């Protein structure tokens, strides 16, 4: 589904991603871990098409199409979803109208007619139930005055509504309380299927106990330096990143 | 960053939606301003002597007054002698039904999305359509008549209710208020007149659609609304204009009078031709609007959505004379390309326990300049006067500007005056967030702008709010790539 080859990207001339290779197949869940500032959110941003990032090398294939060639909204309509590390507030824009617009834009892209109000509300209700999402938040302005955790849950709820092929979740677990973490994870597990895939960025092994990944990758200094299965997360939890850093330093040519 | 650049580039390509012109034969006075022209206008309208005298006095004042100098933009030279001060459709008869109205005129309204017939049937809005200078259709008159409500053209009011006109004309906006008000009082063409009798709640929104349609004809409407004791009225004013080359001067005067326990809600959506991308050919909108809460517990509320005109210069204000009276001002003003808006309000607290509330939302794009200018004055007897002002500016791109000039003057130490102001840029983060959900730049900017203006749009009557939202979208259409 997603095939990243030797991806390099820079912000304002600073190289941030330095040769990422990653292959995600339908039905898989990949976890990406790594120390602060290693480039996890940058990778997510590049995939979603944030303009500040300049791709300097490499390619990304998304279901047979050149992802890097598409505008951000087209990537979204093609089925790429990013749950943001820091969802933004958009004052005065009603959450429900925003979602309806998003759903219908994506439908229009696929040649489907806009959803009727009734059908939309039915879908909204069933997804609210599925994700155990607070209906009151629906009637408020988009993320305006939401608590940190509420914003994260709102993003995950949008994910449920938009039914993406590939969802990238950037530290969705940070800021969630203990119950919310369990509920959100359960929701994500319900959304898992053989036709969609997840990339889950997290610092904590705990989330991966709920959402069990097929692969775990460690991103460090703009590169994936180690990949493994869920046991790798356990190992990281125990030992931290220092042992990896040392391995890498030994491997890297002296500058 | 580059999303904003796109916005800037594309804004230049924005076109005026209602660029067409109707071919109705006009009866136009020769250009120029002098006593004879004023006598001509007055005679055409078969006005009583006192009104002619009043016009002539206005003309004298106009000659004495000079152009204002305090505004935050360069006032263009206006050649008052180059303007024609009277234009009327040739067959100016009063129509009993819409069938008698010139079909081409009706087609014009249809193009604007204002089919009178449908309006009559569907929305319950009585429409007093002012086409250039003469009223051509007044609907729902009978229903209003039964309640004793007077809703007619200004000219008709002069003929049929001279005592009311004489009593209130010029009492809120004195002829000498400013040079444009003086000019208007000398040459005003037509406009609307509303009287709501004691204790009557007007059952429908009263609505007037203004159009400027005659070449090189200044428009000088005059509106007078009187809400008698315990009455209520909501009045809607909406404007569109066809494309043209010469700048057009528009200097209307609106006066509102609210007696004891009455309420007037006045809403405007203004979309006059803003000029091309260099600002050429746009309309100058120099309007004086003021209301007086004359009676105790009365309320006047101004809501305006200003998207058009090359220059907008207006400060709808409220004189809070009656004890416990309330004045409100809700405004969204958009400036794109080379548009200029210098707008705001005046709240004059005279009575005790008077309250005023000001919510102003400026939006600037392209090279647009948006100025909020607000005056809050508290007189010595205005014990416990309260004012709250919230004044926000939203910038799209970095070649536009927002300016805020609050003037606060309090002569009573029990008064409380609060002023809050913010300036923000449309965040790239916000646009990207919406992009990431499948929404393109243009619609994203739309959503953000409408969200920003929501507090004001919410004040508009439902059908008008929808129209206003559309207008904001049209105004910023093509603003992003
Ligand atoms: N606009 C920018 N200008 C310069 N450096 C930037 C910019 N944006 C990001 N960076 C840098 O890129 C690096 C990677 O940042 P990124 O947000 O991708 O890290 P992360 O792995 O998501 O970290 P965290 O775990 O803290 O979320 C950081 O060193 C950051 O400072
Ligand atoms: Mg991050």
UniProtKB/TrEMBL annotation, chain A:
One Pfam family matching this protein: ABC_tran
**UniProt-listed InterPro entries:** AAA+_ATPase, ABC_transporter-like_ATP-bd, FeS-cluster_ATPase_SufC, P-loop_NTPase
Give the highest taxon in the source lineage: Bacteria
**Gene3D superfamilies (alphabetical):** P-loop containing nucleotide triphosphate hydrolases
Does the record's keyword annotation contain Zinc?
A: no
Extract the GO molecular function terms from the UniProt entry: ATP binding; ATP hydrolysis activity
Domain (ABC transporter): give its ranges: 2-246
**Any keyword ATP-binding?**
yes
Keywords, sorted A to Z: ATP-binding, Nucleotide-binding
Q: Which family does it belong to?
A: Belongs to the ABC transporter superfamily. Ycf16 family.
Protein name in the entry: Fe-S cluster assembly ATPase SufC
Which gene underlies this protein? sufC
TrEMBL record, chain B:
Question: SUPFAM superfamilies recorded for this chain?
Answer: Stabilizer of iron transporter SufD
Database matches in InterPro entries: Fe-S_cluster_assembly_SufBD, SUF_FeS_clus_asmbl_SufB, SUF_FeS_clus_asmbl_SufBD_core, SUF_FeS_clus_asmbl_SufBD_sf, SufBD_N
Superkingdom as given in the UniProt entry: Bacteria
Annotated SUF system FeS cluster assembly SufBD core domain ranges read 210-451
Q: Which residues form the SUF system FeS cluster assembly SufBD N-terminal domain?
A: 138-202
Single GO biological process annotation from the record: iron-sulfur cluster assembly
- Family indicated by similarity: Belongs to the iron-sulfur cluster assembly SufBD family.
Report what the protein is called: Fe-S cluster assembly protein SufB
**Which gene codes for it?**
sufB
